[in-house]
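If I may wish for something, please walk me through the protein I am sending here so I can picture the backbone:
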Amino acid sequence: MNSYAIVEAGGKQFWVEEGRFYDFDKLPLNAGDTLKLHKVLLVQNTSGLSIGKPFLSDYSIDATVLRHILGPKTLVYKMRPKKKTRKTFGNRVKLTRVHIKKIDNNSVTAVKCYF
């Protein structure tokens, strides 16, 4: 059975598993930097299910920054009928791709904590 955790990062909640990567909102880190996520809401592992109220203070998630990417483009089209005015513009969200190394049961030392 794979262990997983639910983590709050950047105002959103993510279901994270070891060895996978996730896209968070842009972090002020460089590629290759390591960070620890401390806002752990839930952990499921071999010893059972642990639920925080609201967070689990004895768990942390080790992660590595892979690279910075741009999200999919969101297009907005505005038109005023009978006025012949049209406007199209868009936005691409800046994201940071993070690789989850492991889910720790001890959070004694912290490298960099952004969440």
